[in-house]
What does this fold into?
Amino acid sequence: MSAEEPLFRVVRGIPTAEELAALVGAIALRSRPAGPPPPVARSTWARSARPAGAAPAPGHGAWRASGLPR
It folds into this structure.
């Protein structure tokens, strides 16, 4: 591919400058290598709603035990 050859071409329609910019942005985003996912930040409120220990084991009485304080 030479430096004068376009990376892509429009074969139908007449896109606006904004539509072409969106297309170029999407192509550039998809061509980057995927990195590790960003860490999930959990709020203090969300953490307080979860029990500190392991989750209750499934089985007899698990539903009731899941709502009881530890």
Notes: The chain has a mean pLDDT of 79.
